[in-house]
Amino acid sequence: MDPLGRRRFLSRAVLGTATTVVGATALGTLAPEAFADPALDVEAGAPDPNFAEGRVTGVKGSMLSATGSDGVLHLIQLTAATSIWKLRPTTLDAVQVGDGFYARGVRMPDGVLAADAVWLNIVNLTVHITSIGKEALQLDHHGDKIVGHVVSGTTAAVYNGTPAVSDLSLLKVGQHAQVIGAWRPDTNEVDIATVFAAA
């Protein structure tokens, strides 16, 4: 996927010391659907100093180096309080060079972002379903063909706002849906976390 395509793909996704970082659970839900926090007081049009996005370029201990889609270099400090999501809640061991990320936290005086929460490869896509298989859904996202992999024990569906279930049998070819998942970097493939659709 070319850099512009990668940036467009990622942009369609939905959101010092450990003692200065507020525990993630104190901020409310950490579900991937809620990674953007509209309550933050940032002037319209100004970059949010407590947010970073881009691609991971290095991992050294608990520090991530990264390049934003706008070319800005970031240092992201993970702490014991940092929540990490990569298709499901996970740990620092899951972070890999090349992962796309969104991070929210507290900007330290030295410019490092002490991360409260990091979402790796998260995408939030509006799609229509073009084909349904046991292990994958073929999806169309504004003309882009996406392969949505069904992950046993993880992938769930929400029909008409009901609680999530593992049963995908109510999905239909031609149906419009919203897919939250984890992008497989440099491909047109995602691992599906949740499909939101009408029954």
Quick structural summary:
With 199 residues, this protein is mainly β. The chain has one helix spanning 3-11; strands at 51-60, 63-67, 73-77, 83-85, 89-90, 100-107, 113-120, 122-132, 136-141, 144-150, 156-159, 176-183, 189-197.
Strand content: 35-45%
Tally of helical segments: 1
| N-to-C order of helices and strands | HEEEEEEEEEEEEE
By CATH, the topology of the largest domain is: OB fold (Dihydrolipoamide Acetyltransferase, E2P)
Average pLDDT figure: 82
| Low-pLDDT stretches | 1-30, 32-39
Largest pleated sheet: 5 strands, mixed, barrel
What spatial order of strands do you see in the largest sheet?
1-2-3-7-6
- Proportion of helical residues: under 10%
The gross shape turns out to be elongated
Number-wise, the strands total 13
Distance N terminus to C terminus? 33 Å
**Secondary-structure content class:** mainly beta
Instruction: Report the C-alpha radius of gyration, rounded.
Output: 17 Å
CATH superfamily of the largest domain: Nucleic acid-binding proteins
In total, how many domains does the architecture comprise?
A: 2
Label the CATH architecture of the largest domain. Answer: Beta Barrel
Q: Which CATH top level class of the largest domain fits?
A: Mainly Beta
